[in-house]
Structure formats: structure tokens, C-alpha cells
Amino acid sequence: MSQAGFTAPLRVLLGPGPSDVAPSVLRALSTPTFGHLDPRLVAALDELRAMLRTICATQNEATLAVSGTGTSAMECALVNLIEPGQVVLVAVHGYFGARIAEIAERCGASVIRVEGAWGRASDPERLRAAAHGQHVDLLALVHAETSTGVVQDLAPMRKLADELGAMLAVDAVTSVGCMPVGIDANRVDALWSCSQKGLSCTPGLSPVSFSPRALERIAKRTRKVQSFYLDLQLLLDFWGGAHGYHHTISSNLVCGLHEAARLVIEEGLEARFARHRTQARALAAGLREFGLELLVPEAERLPQLTTVLIPDGVADAQVRGRLLDEFGIEIGGGLGPLKGRIWRIGLMGGGATRRNVLTCLAALKVALAAEGFRVVGDGLEAARASYAAS
Ligand SMILES: *Cc1c(COP(=O)(O)O)cnc(C)c1O
After folding, report:
1. Whose CA is nearest to atom 3 of ligand 1?
2. Last residue of a domain, which of 266, 285, 307?
3. 20 to 30 A Cα–Cα from 300, which one of 28, 30, 242, 340?
4. What is the pTM of this model?
5. Residues 85 and 155 in one domain
6. pLDDT value at position 2?
7. Which CATH number covers residue 106?
8. What is the pLDDT of residues 225-242, one digit of tens each?
């Protein structure tokens, strides 16, 4: 240990999360710690909930943030909604869909897992067929599948859930703050997210939102939620009710996420979503001009996460290592069946900038050349042309 205290290199975070944290959010995080029952904290929770409702386009009273990362918010939604023996239909076309199925199984559900190709959206018809006309309690899926870069259209899934008599639970961990999630417009019954992707805060506080219908279902549970920490009723009592002690929420994280949410609202949702689309288009234009191929067809592509196929003969780890060591840039590798086959480039929240797109393309060109891959065209010029056209 050095006497100088802990240091870490300064990175440019262009992976699947975390994304870069704005200076004003870092300052808010360093607000001297105060108590979880302090009147200022109680007021901050109210303000934060209101901002989260705006960002997620919902009137849901039961909108709050779980102390934990995105997975804890996923677990919160599922442990509260599911009782043992219930039928849960899960669309699995990537790593995080599989995680939903895994948690639903641990809740004692009878899980119908419908596997789709990694790199494409799930087909509602295949889910309908897999249900075989039986009653389904919950349809659960990932809106923005971060392992593949695919967006799942929610409207047809809501329609399917209605036909099956099911509630709709949506993983929006990577979509909140980057693209519309429309909780109320899509009548989503439970939605979860995180702080460190589209909201560009540090990990540790994860938004969840439940519809009035979901609250009714939870009120009718025949047995207690097995998790004390994630029991929605207890969390609601702390966030919105008597504000009695449930757990020691971190005031630092509340301050940080409060400022991050304020930045989102200050920018304006439409402007922010448009910025993500503009940056993604420029990045895609540059990558394709280099002669690289994208995994996902354009209509199903996420703006905040681009997945690119690693060319034959190019070593995944060498390229990512060089980007990190020489340029301080972090991009993501593939997960599961896509390990070693794709890179995942995130332009999330505050990270979706022209500077990041052009820097990433320039660095990637150098790292590819070191692996003997000669780019075909001028990707930077193609990106700049894309901006000029938009
Ligand atoms: C990142 C991610 C998660 C998990 O979030 P953690 O913060 O890592 O726990 C879940 N679902 C999706 C789609 C994600 O991208």
C-alpha cells in the first residue's frame, strides 16, 4: 500500500456499463453522509421518485430505487410478483433473459423458457405457441438485451400478456435514460433498471416501478415474500409511508442518483433519446466503413449499445487490452455463446457523445492494425458524414 492513498487510472467507459459519471454527479456523491431518517433524506427520496416517474413515463405511485445493482431490482420485481407454482413465461434471447428465468425458478415458479437466437428479438408468436393456451401468471422479458444489443418491442408483448391473462414484467436496466420505456403507455406491471448505465451514476441504487394492478396482486399473496430486504411493502413503507427504519439507504447514493436524474430531466427526454440515436448512427457508419459487421439488423438495434463481430484472425483480448492500456478506453467482450465473437460498445447516458464516437473509432483502427487487420475505408470520415446528414 502506498502512503498516497488509493488511486485508479482514469478511464473512458464505453462498455455495457458502468458509463462515465458526470462531475456534478461525483460532487453530489461526495456530499457529507447524513442519516437515512434525516428530514432532508426523506425529502430527497420524494424528489427522486418524482424524477424517476418522469423518466420512466409513469404515474405509478410505487416507483422507488432498491439499494443494490440492477440484479437486485430484477430480484425485487420477481420475488414480489411470483408465488410458488405460478406459471412464468420468459423470453430468452440473451444472457439477461436467462437470468430472469433463473430467478423465477428460484421463486418456485413453473417456468416456460422460450429460447430465441442471440442477436435477434423474441418472436411473440413463438411465445404464444409455447404457452399452449394455458393460463400464464407472468410474462417477463428484457427490453434492451445488453448481451446482444437487441431491443424488444413492448407493444406486441403487452398484447400477448393480455391474451394469456398475464402481468408483464420488463427488464429496462439498459434502456432507462437512453430510450423511451413507456411504462404506462405499454401497461407494464413491473419494471426495473439500474443507476450505472443510461442514468450515468455509480452502481448501487436501482429503480423499480410497479403498476396498481401489480400492487393488488402482491396484496393478495398467500404467503410472505421470501426476501425481507426486497419486500416491496416494506420498501414502500420506508420510501413513501411512515418512513420508518427498514435499511440504511446510502445518502451518498441518493444524492448522486438525484443529481443524475436531474441532469436527464434538464436535458429533456426527447433530446436525450435523439442524442443516443445520432451517436449510434455515427458509430455504426464508422464501423461499417472500416469493413466490420454488426451483429444486429438495423431495425432491432439498440442506440445505446452496438455489437460488432470480431473479424477472423483478430484476437479479442489483445484488442480490448490495447484499447484499455494505450487509450484508457473500456469496451465490452461477448457473454455466453458470443464470448470471443463480438465486442460491445456502449454509448450510454452522458457517454453518448461525438467525442467518444470519434475517439473510439480512431483507437479501434489502431488496435485492429496492430492485429494485422487493415480497415477498408475511412470510418472517421463516415462518422462525420453521418453527423452532417443528421
Ligand atoms: C446490467 C444488466 C443487468 C444486471 O445489472 P447489474 O447492475 O449488473 O446487477 C440486468 N439486465 C440487463 C439487461 C443488464 O444490462
Report:
1. 70
2. 266
3. 340
4. 0.97
5. yes
6. 61
7. 3.40.640.10
8. 999 999 999 999 999 888
Residues 167 and 201 in one domain: yes
pLDDT mean across residues, the chain: 97
Residues 289 and 257 in one domain: no
> Which grid cell is 343?
465486442
- Measured CA to CA, the distance from residue 27 to residue 149 in angstroms comes to 32
* 110-143 per-position pLDDT tens digit: 999 999 999 999 999 999 999 998 999 999 999 9
Residue with cell 410458488: 84
Share of the chain above pLDDT 90, in %: 97
Domain residue limits at 301: 269-389
Domain boundary among 240, 266, 292: 266
> Are residues 292 and 217 part of one domain?
no
DSSP state of 165: T
C-beta separation of 155 from 35 below 8 A: no
Rounded CA-CA distance 25/258 in Å is: 8
Give the Å distance between the CA of 344 and the centre of ligand 1. 14
State yes or no: pLDDT of 3 exceeds 80: no
State the Cα–Cα distance between residues 218 and 208, nearest whole angstrom.
15
Same domain for 133 and 88? yes
Q: Whose CA is nearest to atom 8 of ligand 1?
A: 70
Give the Å distance between the CA of 38 and the centre of ligand 1. 31
